[in-house]
User: What shape does this take?
Amino acid sequence: MEIRLSETEISRLLAERKPLPPDYRERTQTKPKRGHKERELDVNGAEGSEFRLILRQSEFNPLDFSVILAYRPPKTNQLFRLRRYNGRSHEHTNVLERETFYDFHVHTATEHYQNESGLREDSHAEPTARFADFRGAIRAMLADCGFDVPPAAQGDLFAEEQ
Assistant: This one.
């Protein structure tokens, strides 16, 4: 089953409040997994939507990371990537616009890219100066995507730099 969402549905899901659980700190500590560190956290939205936060970072290149917000439609085990915050470790090309850049960037799911055969829903990306590392990408996603973050603790990936 192929998942297709309209721009309105994508915007609604991004805006939906996503309260992080009280133990989110422990549950988001990345763990080694074949050359990178990774962790996933399932989050229930305030309107009943199911989301997954996926954190990945290379163990060799600190600029090679992805912070992903995915949505799981009801009665499926599939994930639809709403947003992806990537490091500056590779060149990105927006195929439909014929734009290429090498920078930190944010992917966003679009109806337009879903309608093009062979392209992922979040293939379109925009360069950004809002973050320059993994922690900054996490903070940017949390600020952009409706997360309710419990008060920060020292050493917390989600906390502001001291």
About this structure: Helices lie at 7-15, 24-27, 111-114, 134-144.
